[in-house]
Design brief:
Length: 479
């Protein structure tokens, strides 16, 4: 790739950040629209869960596949396809006549979304070759994540109040199309020198594992844990997991390299990513229902109420990153787990007329925990790994985040449904107590695995794993 001017490099960063903005904003926007979707389309609680999880299941399943495909076919090409598919999926979602069609069109959105963030980050890292400038670009990237989370509820609430829930999908279309045109004009094409070969069997097994487990969890309150449908879905997930564990080690270039899990820091970071994002997605899911169904707040007001979470998510990641750089990952990891747990516990005695000051404090505490956790996840995942393996390790950590987001909505929604007696507005407060405790336990899990995965013994396993992988000389994904 020829050397690009500084101005063009930062223009490319801005284009890539547009994709991050619409994908990041989309999740929080849809959360704030759940009550409106419930009222307009007559969605059940499980239907609302699928509105979120149909997107995250597909996104989690395809992230690594999209990254390797972009390395092989061209990053700019796949990025443009992703922008077009995401914009098309957004348009279709806005036109969905029924809940079933909305869920189907969310899958289309997710297929496009899987080609955006990992590919865009790969474009950024290839354009910014100077270490200090690349670090600055990644810092801007991280700030846009917080901005997108903060804007989502407010923008979504404004659109729902002014028009209806369908308008939340319109915002993606002009931004996506603008990014598509700008990409064609300014982003150079790039490919990996030695791209990873496709692994279609591994890809299908991962889809079956995530879809089967999510289906079984979400639908079990309606059908029962021992019903044929639940057992079949759970059985598919178990068979897919066993097959994945048996098949992937046999491949020279597996989609999911299981050797990574010999490293305690990597395995711990994976579990922490799942637990922290499960807690966060479950927390947002519960609070959206509480603020609108129980308190009767308009979507815009409900969105404003959640701004303390967004503020902490935007402000604390750079601070956490500096602590990781100077003191290591353990301190922010332990603080994150503690704050996630405390934030959830403060909402266990929640009432239908809870003080907004108490809610704000709870949101600030929980948001602080989530804001601290992301930097140490990535750092711990790549800790001790050879440089050529770091990108693949980070991709697995990113996938783990989406798996956590999927499981959080599935599990928390299922716990809520199993405790619910009567309609949501009257039964939510009592039914949600167990769900808040589940989120608190997820916070404790972050704390426990943070402690286990950041000590000297854990670091020694990472170094041992790196040596073994270097000795085995298996081909790896190259940037």
């Amino acid at each position: 790739m020829p050397e690009l001017s500084r101005r063009r490099r930062f223009l490319i960063l801005g284009i890539c950040c547009l994709s991050l903005l619409i994908v990041g904003m989309d999740n929080s926007i849809v959360n704030i629209a759940l009550t409106s979707i419930h009222q307009d389309l007559g969605a059940s609680l499980s239907g609302l869960q699928w509105t979120i999880d149909a997107y995250t299941v597909v996104l989690a399943s395809l992230l690594m596949f999209a990254g390797s495909t972009a390395d092989r076919l061209g990053r700019r090409r796949l990025f443009q396809i992703g922008l077009g598919v995401f914009a098309l999926g957004s348009l279709l979602c806005s036109l969905a006549p029924t809940l079933g069609w909305l869920i189907a069109f969310r899958v289309v959105q997710a297929v496009g979304g899987s080609m955006l963030n990992p590919v865009a980050l790969s474009i950024v890292t290839n354009v910014f070759t100077e270490p200090k400038e690349r670090a600055r670009a990644i810092g801007v990237w991280g700030s846009v994540v917080g901005l997108s989370i903060g804007l989502g509820p407010v923008v979504g609430g404004s659109l729902i109040d002014a028009i209806n829930w369908r308008a939340i999908f319109w915002v993606n279309i002009p931004i996506g199309l603008a990014a598509l045109v700008l990409t064609a004009l300014y982003v150079p094409e790039s490919r990996a020198a030695h791209p990873r070969r496709p692994d279609p069997v591994g890809q299908l097994l991962i889809i079956a594992l995530l879809a089967g487990s999510t289906f079984a969890i979400i639908e079990s309150p309606r059908w029962g844990w021992t019903s044929p449908d639940t057992l079949v879905a759970g059985g598919i997930a178990v068979v897919a997991l066993v097959a994945l564990l048996a098949y992937e080690p046999q491949r020279a270039e597996p989609l999911l390299d299981l050797r990574f899990f010999r490293s305690v820091p990597f395995a711990g970071a994976t579990v922490i990513a799942v637990c922290s994002f499960a807690a966060y997605s479950g927390f947002l899911f519960l609070n959206t229902l509480y603020l609108q169904e129980v308190r009767g707040l308009r979507p815009l007001v409900a969105g404003v109420c959640t701004l303390p979470i967004a503020a902490m998510t935007a402000v604390l990641p750079p601070i956490s990153g500096r602590i990781v750089a100077s003191r290591g990952a353990r301190i922010p990891m332990l603080l994150a787990g503690l704050l996630l747990c405390v934030g959830a516990v403060t909402l266990v005695p929640l009432s239908a007329s809870e003080s907004y000051w108490w809610l704000t404090v709870s949101y600030l505490v929980f948001g602080a925990g989530f804001g601290l956790v992301n930097a140490p996840i990535t750092n711990t995942a790549v800790s001790g790994m050879p440089r050529e393996q770091a990108g693949t390790a980070a991709a697995v950590a990113s996938t783990s985040r989406q798996v956590g987001a999927t499981l959080g909505v599935a599990i928390i929604g299922t716990v809520l449904a199993s405790q619910l007696n009567g309609p949501l507005p009257t039964g939510f407060v009592a039914a949600s107590r167990a769900a808040w405790w589940v989120i608190a336990v997820l916070g404790l899990a972050v704390l426990a695995f943070g402690l286990l995965s950041t000590g000297r013994r854990a670091d020694a396993t990472a170094q041992r794993t790196a040596r073994l992988m270097a000795e085995e000389r298996v081909p790896v994904l190259a940037d």
